């Protein structure tokens, strides 16, 4: 994370075609004092690797489109394979066993690449799967995975484009906020990375828009 001092407080206008979010950075410096978490019955985690690019991208889109997750969509096959094929990156599909078969319903990606801290890079459930308590349990599972792997610290970040309950969920799991930043990017719905309907509550303002 880099920071740039503000010359003065106030509102900074964005040009049409861009989106911005306030990012909150959180960390946990020790395992929480609770019983070990376990994946609920009927749900399992399946490790994804370099040969699972299509499945990974489908899950990334399914989970992330409401919140304008775009970063992984910018990557080439080789770039994405280098990440999720790394032994130090634990990317998992959350799979639910239901009456009509197995369904990918979420994504959990934990990076152990940096010795000073593990990072929960991506975590979420597909639309219609939230609000039932599963996300809270799986978050605890991810925390346990990180510390069981020997990480001295675990970090995660969320932003104002994320699910409204995300920040509170992380805090309840034991994370504490330590910094904020502002991320500005081209709107991925205008660059072709995401459909125009993506991004709940984020108006689409075309680059040629005028007052």
Give the class-level CATH name. Answer: Alpha Beta
What characterizes the major β-sheet? 7 strands, mixed
Cα separation of the termini: 34 Å
Fraction in beta strands: 25-35%
- Please state how the strands of the largest beta sheet are arranged side by side: 2-3-4-5-6-1-7
- Total strand segments: 7
CA-atom Rg in angstroms? 18 Å
Number of domain modules: 1
Number of helices: 4
Can you walk through the features of this model?
- By secondary structure, this protein is of the alpha+beta class.
- It has one domain: Gcn5-related N-acetyltransferase (GNAT) (Aminopeptidase, 3-Layer(aba) Sandwich).
- The chain is 20% helix and 30% strand.
- It has four helices and seven strands, in the order ββααβββαβαβ.
- The chain has helices spanning 53-64, 77-84, 134-148, 166-173; strands at 18-28, 43-48, 89-98, 101-111, 118-125, 154-159, 176-186.
- A seven-stranded mixed sheet has the order 2-3-4-5-6-1-7, sandwiched between helices.
- A hairpin with a 2-residue loop joins β3 (89-98) and β4.
- The longest helix has 15 residues, at 134-148.
- The two termini are 34 Å apart.
- The mean pLDDT is 93.
Gist of the model:
This protein has helices spanning about 55-65, 75-85, 135-150, 165-175, and strands at about 20-30, 45-50, 90-100, 100-110, 120-125, 155-160, 175-185. It is of the alpha+beta class and about 210 residues long.
